[in-house]
Q: What sequence folds into this?
């Protein structure tokens, strides 16, 4: 795979960029850019809880976020990168949030010991219908007054395909959108970003270290291969389920037709009700 077509949304590369020891300031910049764009206070300190591992592969990934961090004041931050998806991702993001929320409560703790969980979802597909905003943020609010019940639930969705320079985002977050959307034009994009944003200079330097390392680049390539293998397996599994359902429906039609015929119902009526051909029903 040529560097020209390097996909920065590759989970292996994303975890290298945000969860590698020593990259905490890069992760903090992304998180704070998201927070500032939502008129929330930025954080001073971020600790990565699931640091990057050179030997990671896509098959290790179960119900865990891509990157998980903790702030000095106790907030948990989870970052999920999703390249393909649909409306069901909304429920998946709520599941991840809930799982991280309740696991914060230890056996001897009381409910007031629970701490906020902030979920940041980076999506390479359109999720929220009827909204053109590339960055949307959700809290629990009272319907009429907009009073926020609690800051413990905070869900952010960065929908990369909705991004355009004309949209009024916080400049730091706009730069992150540019980077995350770069794909086959990364070199051109970074040439512009490094001149105006110091953190992007560091991001670009880390990218260059990554692609020049055989071990890291092989990890990227393997992850791409495994990622698409998993997608194909899932598609085959779904296809098998759909075929099984269809087979069950057909069997049910024949069973109903057979029972109707035993009750001496008119053949044409049975055909109309079940969709089966008259000749097929006569053979039952």
A:
């Amino acid at each position: 795979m040529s560097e020209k077509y390097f996909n920065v949304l590759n989970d292996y590369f994303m975890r290298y960029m945000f969860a590698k020891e020593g990259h905490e300031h890069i992760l903090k910049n992304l998180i704070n850019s998201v927070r500032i764009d939502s008129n929330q206070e930025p954080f001073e300190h971020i600790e990565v809880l699931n640091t990057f591992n050179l030997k990671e592969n896509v098959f290790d990934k179960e119900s865990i976020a891509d990157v998980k961090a903790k702030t000095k004041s106790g907030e948990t931050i989870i970052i999920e990168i999703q390249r393909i998806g649909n409306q069901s991702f909304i429920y998946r993001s709520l599941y991840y949030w809930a799982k991280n929320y309740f696991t914060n409560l230890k056996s001897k703790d009381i409910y007031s010991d629970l701490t906020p969980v902030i979920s940041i979802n980076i999506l390479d597909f359109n999720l929220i219908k009827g909204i053109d905003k590339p960055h949307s943020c959700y809290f629990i609010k009272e319907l009429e007054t907009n009073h926020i019940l609690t800051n413990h639930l905070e869900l952010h969705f960065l929908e990369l395909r909705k991004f355009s320079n004309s949209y009024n985002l916080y400049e730091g977050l706009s730069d992150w959108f540019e980077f995350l959307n770069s794909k086959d034009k990364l070199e051109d994009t970074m040439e512009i970003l490094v001149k105006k944003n110091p953190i992007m200079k560091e991001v670009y330097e880390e990218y260059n270290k990554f692609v020049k390392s055989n071990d890291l680049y092989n990890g990227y390539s393997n992850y791409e291969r495994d990622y698409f293998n998993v997608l194909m397996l899932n598609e085959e599994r779904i296809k098998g389920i759909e075929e099984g359902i269809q087979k069950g429906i057909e069997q049910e039609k024949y069973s109903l037709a057979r029972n109707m015929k035993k009750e001496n119902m008119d053949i044409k009526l049975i055909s109309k009700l079940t969709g089966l051909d008259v000749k097929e029903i006569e053979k039952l």
User: Anything to note?
Assistant: The chain has a mean pLDDT of 85. Residues 214-262 form the longest helix (49 residues). Strands lie at 46-48, 67-71, 76-82, 117-123, 135-141, 148-159. The two ends are 58 Å apart (CA to CA).
